[in-house]
Amino acid sequence: QVQLVESGGGLVQAGGSLRLSCAASSRMFSNYAMGWFRQAPGKEREFVAAISRGAGITSYADSVKGRFTISRDNAKNTVYLQMNSLKPEDTAVYYCAARISTAWVTPSGKSAYDYWGQGTQVTVSS
């Protein structure tokens, strides 16, 4: 069992930046592909970004490409999401997710992930 704890959410003005963190409890963290998803009120949870085990490969949703950066620090069992040039439409609860992985993959489907955090609220004001 892996526990994931997100932090770093908050209220920011449009054009601002936030960095989300997700700390994992597992010593096998480097073997997990990690993803960030978000869910706005009344909408489905959607893929934001993912990073493969070992941090070799990243992928992004088109809506955040060029503005968000996913990274990981395997020594700290932590994955990050740096969010720049934030827009009001980025407002959502952001979740991190982990997938046990033997391959260098960056899954974008919710069902591909084995573990989820509780989420952190990001609100972008116009």
Key words describing this protein structure:
126 residues, seven-stranded mixed β-sheet, four-stranded antiparallel β-sheet
Q: Please count the helical segments.
A: 0
Outline type: globular
| SS strand fraction | over 45%
List the helices and strands in order: EEEEEEEEEEE
Poorly predicted regions = none
Radius of gyration: 13 Å
Outline the fold blueprint:
Blueprint: E1 4-7, E2 10-13, E3 18-24, E4 32-39, E5 46-51, E6 58-60, E7 68-73, E8 78-83, E9 92-100, E10 115-116, E11 120-125
Parallel strand pairs: 2-11
Antiparallel strand pairs: 1-3, 3-8, 4-5, 4-9, 5-6, 7-8, 9-10, 9-11
Structural features, described:
This protein is mostly beta strands and 126 residues long. It is 0% helix and 48% strand. It is built from no helices and eleven strands. Strands 2, 4, 5, 6, 9, 10 and 11 form a seven-stranded mixed β-sheet that branches. Strand 7 (68-73) and strand 8 form a beta hairpin. The protein is globular. 35% of the residues are buried.
